[in-house]
Amino acid sequence: MMRFIVTASAVITGGSAVYFYLFHQRLSSRIQHKSHSGKLSAPSPKPIEIESIPGDIFTDQYFALYDHSSKSVARDALPKNVPTEQLFTKLVRRNMMAFTRFPQALMIRLVSRAPEEQRSFKTSYLSSLDFKHGELACGVYRVIARTKNKVEFEMTMKNMEFINGRLALSFRETENEVVFSSETLMWRRSDEKQAMPLEKPLLRWMHETATWWLLDSGVKYLMEMES
Fold first, then answer.
1. What tens digit of pLDDT does each residue of 4-32 get?
2. How far apart (Å, rounded) are the C-alpha atoms in residues 16 and 106?
3. Is the dihedral of CA 109, 113, 119, 120 positive or negative?
4. Same domain (yes/no): 17, 41
5. Residue partners of 69: CB distance under 8 A and separation at least 6
6. Do 80 and 25 belong to one domain?
7. How confident is the model over 141-172, as pLDDT tens digits?
8. Which domain holds residue 10?
9. Kind and range of the H or E run holding 93
10. Whether 26 and 114 share a structural domain
């Protein structure tokens, strides 16, 4: 019986790994993606569109991980009677609510003790956020900059003071399309030996999968809204 349980568990685990690998591959075909690791000083890829990065991060004293994902959609495929900036706010609300069900959010919630942090996971709270400067979402994402087409969150992680980061969600419009983007940036001092979460392959893979799915399903959510 014990041998059967171990064998069955291995099959299930292996099957799950194959499923999520294929899921990751399918998402990658629907998302535009680029990344960079190392120093942000030249010749790192430009532009990094996050505006709230401290200037000294662009020096040799810091090591950074940068990830940019985007998805384009025809403007005609979105509700016509809703301004794009309102659709964007709805997208950010929806994606933050969806994120609360991810393993990453569950781990964050375990160490979020303050009342403000606990409240920031609640659907009733997230569904009405306008993401004004200083507002908190999902325990660690505090709005540090806000314009009509972008929200920049400062990431603060308990017990990991050596890590700093930004999450930026934005959109831009071309003649016929809207491009929704998600940017993640983490940095640490170059002499800090402890690895950041996204330096670990499994956590980076989980981050990519979550980001791509949120963008892909978030755009689909907007497309299915009534005008």
1. 333 434 444 445 666 666 666 677 778 99
2. 20
3. negative
4. no
5. 31, 32, 33, 181, 182, 183, 208, 211, 212, 215
6. no
7. 999 999 999 999 999 766 555 568 999 999 99
8. 1-30
9. helix 84-99
10. no
